[in-house]
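Input/output pair, single chain:
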Amino acid sequence: MKKLIAILALFCTFFAAALPAYAQDKAADKPAATAPAAAPAAAAAAPAATPAPTPNKGDVAWMLVSTVLVIMMSIPALALFYGGMVRAKNMLSVLMQVFVTFSLITVLWCIYGYSLAFTEGNAFIGSLDRLFLNGTIDPKGEFAMAATFSKGVVIPELLFVAFQATFAAITCCLIVGAFAERMKFSAVLVFMVIWFTFAYTPIAHMVWFWPGPDAYTAANLVDGLNAKAGLMWQWGALDFAGGTVVHINAGIAGLVGAYMVGKRIGFGREAMTPHNLPMTMIGASLLWVGWFGFNAGSALEAGNSATLAFINTFLATACAVLSWTFGEWLFKGKPSMLGAASGAVAGLVAITPAAGNVGIPGAFVIGLSAGIVCLWGVNQLKRMLGADDSLDVFGVHAVGGILGALLTGVFCSPRLGGPGFVSDWVTGAIISAGDYSIASQVLTQAKAIGVTIIWSAVVAWIAYLIANMVVGLRVSEEEEREGLDVRSHGETAYHT
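Output:
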């Protein structure tokens, strides 16, 4: 452990020392850094007389609020949601893993993660043009701008950086629930660094990176601009706020971890009931509120798209609470508070890729389906897989994410009340109901899901292997029986 800490300290010292020299070198190499896309506004050819677009204060205010809401989703919402579901002796260990992982990934995002995800590179990964956020603000105090999804509408790139940092951080935090109560704290951190670098950033780039709407000024530029986008963006995969990037990605990594770390001692023989369901309910409620920033904020501006994402998030989640509750009541005889809270999260997960991509009919169907399908995922499917996924990361996030991503392809159709999508970024034309093919779009969604599953699983497997070789994955049997709070952190959540 001391060697690990020394290596991390040396790593941080090296980068801190290298930053000023790197920034100077980049400034000398490039008069002005090219702003990365989907984010970053393309330095597209605009008439010389046309002034550069400036941010709207309403959009900036909305995105600042959305960023804070997503921060709240991790700390404290996810931490409380997870913490209440473990046994009392492991409460603080879960809070620590979420809290420190969130902080670790935020730092890594600002060092290199953002650059790898949201700068031009190839179809799989970006470049290091924004290493240490170089180029987002120049020495004169001029801020680089990031594009939204409307021509001529921008936000400060640093705001986009912060917003996307919260997505990267919570994705990694979600994985914690799969191996809760038995994995070493040091192993958690080693795994997170590797998986974030080689799974999260490439998937984010493949799904969300594109040159931005302002780059599309003429028809003869379209093919070349599309070729610069991420692989799944080129395919036309729809993921409004992270069905593939966040939920499927994290759910698969969690399942791999549940297998590789192994089952908890006594799993299937001893009662492992949640120790504090009020904490779980509070966490789920805060997640629901924070998710409005997650989904509606992904519109990147305060307008119709954000409004649609907001109401869909609200409605689908309520529908999922009801379907999970009544499903549990029907099949198990009693509706539970844990079930209702889990239903809320299932609905939130499933509507994430669809939030701004479907109409009201889609929200009803996705929400009602998510409650039932994820209830099956955490019961029958979990038993079939035979994994001790402690807090059902796979059953809720991967299963719900897959369901939502596929149904996005169905209910995006204008014939089913969906908004469709932009078919021509030069003119801004929306695909017509007659031209929208549900079968074709669902196939595209399935391809994106398949790539995400395979990519995340392979990287997670390698990351767990490396963590095991470096520090070991699992605490000793004695430590696990006594509890990770005392043995790993030297403190307890409750004093009697």
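The chain is about 65% helix and 0% strand. The first strand starts at residue 145 and ends at 147.
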